[in-house]
Amino acid sequence: MTQPRPDEFIPPPECPVFEPSWEEFADPFAFINKIRPIAEKTGICKVRPPPDWQPPFACDVDRLHFTPRIQRLNELEAQTRVKLNFLDQIAKFWELQGCTLKIPHVERKILDLYQLNKLVIDEGGFDTVCRERRWTKIALKMGFAPGKAVGSHLRAHYERILYPYNLFQSGSNLLAPGLTSKLMRLVADPNLEKCVQKPTLTNDAKDKEYKPHDLAQRQSVQPAETCTPARRAKRMRTEGGGVKKEPGEPCENRPNLRRRMGSFVAKPEPEKEVPVQVKQEPEGRSVMSEVEKAKARYKKNVPAMSIVDLYVCLVCGSGSDEDRLLLCDGCDDSYHTFCLIPPLHDVPKGDWRCPKCLAQECSRPQEAFGFEQACRDYTLRTFGDMADSFKSDYFNMPVHMVPTELVEKEFWRLVSTIEEDVTVEYGADIASKEFGSGFPIKNGKFKLAPEDEDYLNSGWNLNNMPVMDPSVLTHVTADICGMKLPWLYVGMCFSSFCWHIEDHWSYSINYLHWGEPKTWYGAPGYAAEQLEEVMKKLAPELFESQPDLLHQLVTIMNPNILMAYGVPIYRTNQCAGEFVITFPRAYHSGFNQGFNFAEAVNFCTVDWMPLGRQCVDHYRMLHRYCVFSHDEMVCKMACKADTLDVVLASAVQKDMAIMIREERELRENIRKMGVVNSQPAQYDLLPDEERQCARCRTTCYLSALTCPCSHGALVCLHHVQDLCSCPVNCYTLHYKYTLDDLYPMMKAIALRAESYNDWASHVTEILEAKLDKKKSLAEFRALIEESEAKAFSDNDLLRQLRLVTQDAEKCSSVAQQLLNGKRKTRFRSGGGKSQNQLTVEELKSFVRQLYNLPCSIHQAPLLKELLNKVEDFQQHSEKVLAEEVPSAAEIQGLLDSSGELDVALPEVPMLRERLEQARWLEAVRGAGAQPASLSLDAMRRLIDQGVGLPPHASVEKAMARLQELLTVSEHWEDQARSLVKARPRHSLETLEAALQEVENIPAYLPNCLLLKDAVSRAKEWLQDAEGLQLGGRIPVLDTLSELVSRGRSIPIHLDPLPRLEALVSEVQAWKECAAKTFLMKNSPFTLLEVLCPRCEASAAGQKPKSKKAKDMVQCSKKKTVKLDSLSDVERALSDSKDSASAMATLGEVRLKEMEMLYSMRAFNESKLLLTKDWKGLQFCMCPDAPVGAMLQCELCRDLFHSGCVPGPVDPRGSQPWLCPLCRCSERPPLDRVLPLLASLQRLRVRLPEGDALRYLIERTVRWQHRVQQVSAALKLPVALERASASPCAKAFCGSSPSQEWNGSGQSQAAFYIEQRCIPLQGLSSELEQLMVEGLLLQVTLPETQKLYHVLLHRLSAQAADGTTQKHHAQGRGQAQNEDGHCSLKREAVSSTDRKAKRRLERDGMDGGSRCRAKKPQKKKMKLNKNKIRDSKAAPSSPSLTSDPSPSEDSEEDMALCPAEDCQQPEGDEVDWVQCDGSCNQWFHQVCVGVSPELAEKEDYICVNCTVKDGHGRK
Hints:
Blueprint lengths: L16 E2 L3 H4 L2 H12 L4 E4 L17 E2 L2 E4 H4 L1 H18 L6 E2 L1 E2 L2 E2 L2 H10 L3 H6 L3 H7 L8 H21 L6 H11 L4 H4 L12 E2 L5 H6 L11 E3 L53 H10 L27 E3 L6 E3 L18 H8 L9 E2 L4 E2 H16 L8 H11 L5 E12 H4 L51 E5 L4 E5 L6 E9 L2 E5 L5 H11 L1 H6 L13 H6 L5 E5 L4 E4 L5 E5 L3 E8 L5 H14 L7 H10 L6 H28 L3 E4 L22 E5 L2 E6 L16 E4 L3 H14 L1 H14 L7 E2 H13 L6 H24 L5 E3 L5 E3 L4 H13 L2 E2 L3 H23 L5 H11 L8 H23 L6 H12 L5 H28 L7 H12 L6 H22 L9 H13 L6 H23 L8 H5 L15 H9 L10 H10 L3 H31 L18 E5 L6 E3 L28 H14 L4 H27 L5 H5 L2 H9 L4 E2 L9 E3 L11 H12 L5 H21 ...
Parallel strand pairs: 1-2, 23-26, 27-30, 31-34
Antiparallel strand pairs: 2-20, 3-13, 4-12, 4-14, 5-8, 6-7, 9-14, 10-11, 14-15, 15-22, 16-21, 17-20, 17-22, 18-19, 18-21, 24-25, 24-26, 28-29, 31-32, 33-34, 35-36, 36-37
Helix pairs in contact: 7-8, 9-12, 21-22, 22-23, 23-24, 24-25, 25-26, 27-28, 28-29, 28-30, 29-30, 30-31, 30-32, 31-32, 32-34, 33-34, 34-35, 35-36, 36-41, 39-40, 40-42, 40-48, 41-42, 42-45, 45-46
């Protein structure tokens, strides 16, 4: 929306508009009385009749003709007229001095001379403004932009145009006599001319000539017939000359210079155009400059006669410088040009008046302003054509398309400008009696249709309204045109009616019959004096000459200006078919939007009566005539007391009482003054103009004073002193009624109004009753019922009583609804029907209203109590809301209590807001109290919730803290993330420093916790890394690898980590080297499986433990480490503290390996002795039965198909053949293995493979040592070549047939063993143990090969000597002799075979079960660890013939293990086993390779007993 310009008109607010129903419209006075409380507040209102009410236009259009008024718009506005009057005076002043006024331009706009003159006067005058240099200040006040040196231009224009006029006004234009001689002396100074600066300021070519108004002439002289009735012209016009030319009088013939006793100027000078030069006297200028200038320019040859000496200057008294003497065209007085103030620079061309004549001319009283009458007569048609043509031409568009807003703004622009003259005409105050009303009247010439006859008697017919019974004007007998008889108004665009109030402050009603709208402006009656004061203040010059200016209907003022001074103004646009009603003393004005026809009339109601008397007093003060006599109207109504309405009678009684009191006082006053003569007078029979007071022009009726010296003159009793100069006793009092006549009249009217007065006094009494004397609502209803019963007419008191009663009933109903908890349904603008609670202010106002009601309401105390509760709630709420951080529970309690108060409490929304804030603050505090749960998401969620909360200091603080915490947390989260993910990794010190910052943040930060955990793990890792090297301990590879793995997972730079990683890499490289050394290509075995003793048996070699053995293990006090699988062994090696414990663990595994292998060998050998079907047994690596050529493993003794497994590398049998399961490595030579151990020792790292390698080397060395001992004891050959070159061996290799086997009862062919094997018959257990252990070693040793050849050679030779025939498997049981002779069969039933058989039988292969006697308990003995440590056994050398005889009674002997390689086991308990041979010695089970289960179930025979007794191992 664009902002209006500062000078653009802003429409005032609209006045009320009423649209009555047909029922309301039926009685106009009742409807007007109904709307009066609302409408009189705005002064005017608009009434739209029901749509079907359309009276016919009854005016005789053909007969109607009128002469309109001429209105020049800028002369209507008060302030503009003041400016024009001022310019007229200035123009007249210069015109009388022979000059033409031209208004200059400053900054491209016409200079406002009136404003400039007023501002200079306000600032102290010309001299003060120049002395204090205030011209710039004046320029700013006039609206000029600063910084353009406008002040100097304003000074020049003021000095040239206004300063001479102000000097004239002040009377300073005539010099004192003392100054004359001084001026004469200055004339004789020849050097003065050099010092004088001639004026240089001339009129600008752009200056506009001012055309005077000549208002008096225009109002007294009729305009020419050729004058355009409605014209728009520019007042300012540019002219080339600067001198006014008189018509018919050439300038050269009228110089007006030096009139000489009837003589005239000789030799006229050539004409020169002399511009108007007004005095402009810079500092240092002398008046003599003007004299010298005049001498130089106007020297004339004159006759030698001295007649001219008879004329002297009236100022200086000198007749010298006759060429500078001017003669006045009015009085023929002579003056020097330089003696005038201000002095004239040049002789004026044209008429010139001396200061005396100028003063006389300008001091003539200004005639009152009024409208001119147009020069022609119009009919409606001709006036309409002119009006439409003017509007369409002015706006350059069809009349019906011009917006009313545009016309309104343009009108107020035109009335405020002096630059444009727009003249319009207005057909106003046309008497309807002469040409007929626009409404139909009875007996009129207009013929009505039958359906329009109702308009004849309609109350809204303006011919009927003034004379209806409710109108007081009915009792005025005269037909007052305009008041009782309607006036007609024919308007055109811009024609206006000025600010005025109706005669006698009466009502007025205006109806627009047809045409374009009429725009109205109105001010309420109470603001009438305020409006008058503002207009007098802004245009005092107008009111000085016309005190009753506002009663002349000739002055208008912009409503915006009035509103700026606090006057309430309202507007409306009256369209055709609408009424506008103005109320008593309501100022109104307006203008017409275009051609239209309106009709207006006055009326007065009962409520107007007091105002009518006030208006008469006001007219008396203004000396304004009355339209009718108010006292005459009252007396006539009193004479009709019997027929008057009681309400009107009551009003007349009150008005008559005032009238009689004033009349009594006035008559008493003149009696005291000396008036004694009196006589009756029939003033009601005289015309109004013959009975007007000579002083105040009031129409006299009750009394008047006359004097014989003044025939026809009379005065009212208020102005006795103004009649004449005769003595008062000569005056005569003329009276209509005596006082005695007036009292009966008032008594009669009082009797008529008595019933109403009693009722009215009672109503007034109860309406004005105080708190304790108020009556009930029922009594108010009774008074209304009484007025209806007595048929009192509608009046102010009855309306007030009804309004009070209605308000009381509504209040009582609302109060009861409030007390019942119900809410009143109210309608509000902008929405539909909605239930709204009363606000606290409404409740307070309602309670005050209840107590301010004239009647008492019984609900008032209860509502007062409710109000007290509400106020208590508000106080408590205010206290809670004032707290910085209130309790949420307390706020909730207040909200709960507010639900009991059925009032819209403004604190409730605030409490709800504070409740949300309090809950949020509690949530923030709760989150802050538990930093572990205050995550970033929780903070963001709290902040999001806080953003939606209403602003509050506590919330802002908490939000600021939370936002700061979130910012810091996010920063450190990102920092922690970057620190954790940084590459290269940061040092521990950097992260610890960051962690110190993070630890003070009370929030849950995952990345910071990760950082903290990383720092903690790093510290722990460093401690573990440091602990690995404490005490010289060698770290285990698993521990080291786990440490390195942990170190890699820690996002921190760890100094030891690279070294440990390098160490692990070296260990891995060592393992790869060891694997290349030991493992075969594509070997399924791991390095640890190869290096470690075998702890897992094949499926065929496993035997389950008996229940007895299980129970014995569970009951054992020693909890041994489980070593059943390779993973168990690897775990045990990794968990071992040092190499010794690892060696001990591997020793246990070795024992298990030996035990397992012996069992497997026995089992595999026993399979060859079975006589039953072999299909149930598993041979080889395939499920097929043995057939054809078979290979027998030297270690596990199992058979393999030669086609299933690779055969011996050496067909001569120089090396023992091992099956793929027993040969699991490359078996490198020892010299290749020892460097691996040395390099491992340099690495200073323990690993299971390293421990196994070390144990393997130690086992190998021990085995070599045992081989040497056994070889020395048994005197075995030591040369492999001898053993291999032995004749027996060669014979065995070349000619010995292979053994053939055939299962009994089977049709399949028998199998045979392809290669030679060491026979087990006759092989001692010690040699077998040596051979088995040698074959188990995963290294290639020459001793193994030697031992293999020795055993293979010796035992094969014995077998060749003792057995030459083939043995078959079938019939082995029947071929057994009972006498026990040694044979092959008998040999088969050796102890080893028996144990294998028993094992097979236990495994359920033959389904039998045997029972054997338990060994005595002494076979297993456990000794204390301490005792074993105390005993030092000296191992005896193994010997085939040794027969140790230990003493069973000696505990010391029993504590010594006779095994050659006693390992001296440690622990709380040590398991022992006793030899079942001839020596009965006790051995450590671990030293002889016997497990507790084996010792419990089978016999044990030591090596010595085996060699000595020739027993086989059982």
